[in-house]
Amino acid sequence: MQPRRLTAVFDSWGFERHSSRTSPTLVELYRRRDNPHVRTLAVRLGILLFLATPLLAISASLVVSWNNPAFAWDGVAFGVALGVAFGVAFGVAFGVAFGVAFGVAGGVAGGVAGGVAGGVAGGVALGVAYGVAFGVAFGVAGGVAGGVAGGVAGGVAGGVTVGVAGGVTVGVAFGVCCLIVYLRVPIYALEALWTWLLTTLCETGQLSWRRAALRLPFHYHDVIWFPLPRLRPFLVAAGKENVALGNSLIAEAADTLGQKGPAQKALVELQAWSLERAAQFRWWARVAELDLDFLRIVETPTLMRSFRDAARDLYAAERSRSHHHKNAALERARTTLQRVQSAIVGEPHPEYLERHLLSVARTWLAVVAEEQASLAISMRERPQVPTPFVAGEVLRASNRELFKGRRDLTRIIDHDLTGDRRAPFLLLGQRRMGKSSLLNMLPEHLGTGTQVVTLNFQGLSGETHLQTPHLWLEQEVAAACGQAPSPPGRTAWGETLKWLEQVDAHLQQQERRLLIAIDEVERLQDEVERGRTSTDFLDLVRAMGDRLGRVRVLLVSAHPLARLGPHWVDRLISVVQRELGYLKPDEARELMCQPIDGFPDIYPPGGVERIAEQTRCHPYLVQLVCDKLTFSLNANERLQATDEDIELALDDALPNAEAALFNALWAQQTVDEKTWLARLARAPVPVARPDRVLKGLIRHGFVEQRAGDMHVAVPMFGTWIRDRKPEDEPPRAEAKDVVEAKTTPLA
């Protein structure tokens, strides 16, 4: 039984550990003499102490007594008896493991020492001391309960080697003792041969991997300093044959001294094998969850995460019925795998894992190529309308093709950043108008001379710095400007302002600018009303406009400042307001007809105009209706839409528009505003002199004048308002200044 496992067995039997011993005493074992395992253990220890000790002592004495007529055999008997006696005594006092180890080592050493004299005895003493020191100290005291092999080998080999050496210098003898006692080279040679033999027998089919695994040397011997030859291929083959067995063997081998390296390499090979099998059988979902054999027992390295990302895209492609989405997912997977391949090839000295993952990447790329070829055939045989429209998601650089228009606004922002202008900006726009998408596109439009840092206050409630949002700003700016001075990290926003002045001076030297964009800044007011933060952040924004030249602030909101509260108007009185409104008709047409290169002409005559009219060129609604239309065409396996398809897409889009847009737009209106919108939704109203409420609705794009009448600007929104339940509508009230006769348009 392996010493470390012997200690574990003692623990499982409930024997209490002490600082002075790691095994039970003979008395404790005697109390459990009815246990068959205890009896078996006692028999083994007894054989080792009472039988093996005399045999080892006699064998060693035969070697030492060669050509030594003065050898005293009676001294051997006395030494063995004395060692065994001390072993029993120590077994009672300090535990059976220590007692047996000391008894065997002392018996053999004492027996040999009793039979010789002079230098030889001194050599034996030296050898015994060395053997016992390393065998017992590294065994018993180190928790390897017993260390019997080390003690025996030390006593015998050390005594014989140094004794026979005689006149040889102590240094040479000491070195030989090191090889034999500490490194255990003779034992290792036998274990290496045995491992090689087991692997060969298994490979030739003469022995099963499971049976051979029980006979591996590291099961019985912890202190194997060197890797066992052919252990790695044994572990790999056993793992392929039986996953549970492979995992168990790798874990056990990795827990021993010299077999950790082979175990780690075997695990790498099995991981690569699992990934290749996953590609062969298309187990993308399992790879995405790291639910493959041999991938669950280790931390996930960076390259392995890349395979997980590729598997997610491949799984998405497998489940998608859209040719466009399937092709996009396959292309993302191919790009990810090519990056892995390039990263490994670019390494001058790739690690063992990287070398094997390179082969896996090639296998996966071949599978992706097969899937793309199969998709190309499907696209020719069963063509579909591409479905590139993204409704509701923030556009990023990866889908910049869908970002249409806004060029005039980006030019204005770029213009406002130049010169000596310092006041903060306010970008005002309705919900889902594309404000966040615009922020993502600003770096490309503004160029490298302007660094854009974006904070989204939508997640302010979950931020660590909820009460001190200026510290959040510090962190983001410091991360973006790597060469800037270190931020102070203090609760007073005045310290942040002083630090930003240093950043401003740094940017001045580099002739660069910094734009800090704060998306959904109105969420700050929500937290102020909850009492979880204050308006001090607005003081910082105002002070930044007064004292900084190269650092500018862009606030993004769906609400005008007056609606957020008087403190917003007071703190930001000098703000430069820019509005993000509906797309222009030609921009909306481009979005519908050319969302991506090669998009087919799917609309009936007048269909584009119908969608533009009903959505009022609202970017979210345009994408939503077009997405519904393309989905319907593909579901019915048609490539050309009819007028009925357009109307059906408009109707199908209403539930999504309600959840994602209309409810929020309606909730932000006052009672008077809701009254006006409900009235206009029922029928256009001619107005001679609009009141304050109606003027506000016109200013913010909810109401428009057409042919002298007031209309809800977005007909889809008007339809939704008109179809609302009666209990959801505001109380009916006659709007002021409504006249029946047609009036002149508003100036």
Automatic annotation (TrEMBL):
Residues 723-740 have a biased composition (Basic and acidic residues). InterPro entries: P-loop_NTPase (IPR027417). Residues 723-747 are annotated as: Disordered. Keywords: Membrane, Transmembrane, Transmembrane helix. The chain crosses the membrane at residues 41-64, 76-104, 116-140, 160-183. This is Uncharacterized protein.
